[in-house]
Write a structure and sequence with these properties.
Order of helices and strands: EHHEEEHEH
Distance between the termini: 45 Å
Shape: globular
Helix content: 25-40%
Number of domains: 1
CATH architecture: 3-Layer(aba) Sandwich
Radius of gyration: 15 Å
Strand order of the largest sheet: 1-2-3-4-5
CATH topology: Aminopeptidase
Number of helices: 4
Number of strands: 5
CATH superfamily: Gcn5-related N-acetyltransferase (GNAT)
């Protein structure tokens, strides 16, 4: 995992994970202007891009958030992120929508901590 500057290759790879151009632009702005949000390029047994954000303060528990990720060999990246979080003294949080990712994270020691419900105008009722 190598910290990287925002670039077109990362943007192209991360767009599907972001879900929309607007969300990708928000993430891009965070990486460019928020010292707590960083872009990493993953090379080796896994290849891709990862956006991590450190949340919390010295008075609160620190939490490393996996904001976006794209590429292949994802499972090989999780131990790297866990080691990084351990060095920071932080827990890890990620929001996922795919059942396969849930199983993969559970196999790496993660547990479900919340269920997120969402409604948008036009979704009904």
């Amino acid at each position: 995992m190598i910290r990287s500057r925002w670039c077109q290759a990362a943007e192209t790879a991360l767009l599907p994970a972001a879900g929309s151009v607007q969300e990708l632009e928000r993430t891009r702005a965070d990486v460019l202007h928020d010292r707590c949000t960083e872009l990493y390029q993953v090379r080796g047994s896994a290849e891709g891009w990862l956006v991590l954000r450190l949340e919390g303060s010295l008075l609160d528990e620190l939490e490393l958030v996996i904001v976006l990720g794209a590429g292949h060999g994802t499972r090989a990246v999780i131990p790297l992120v866990k080691r990084y979080a351990t060095r920071l003294g932080a827990t890890i949080r990620t929001h996922i929508t795919r059942a396969g990712l849930k199983r993969m994270y559970e196999a790496e020691g993660f547990h479900q901590a919340q269920i997120v419900m969402r409604w948008r105008p036009g979704d009904g009722q």
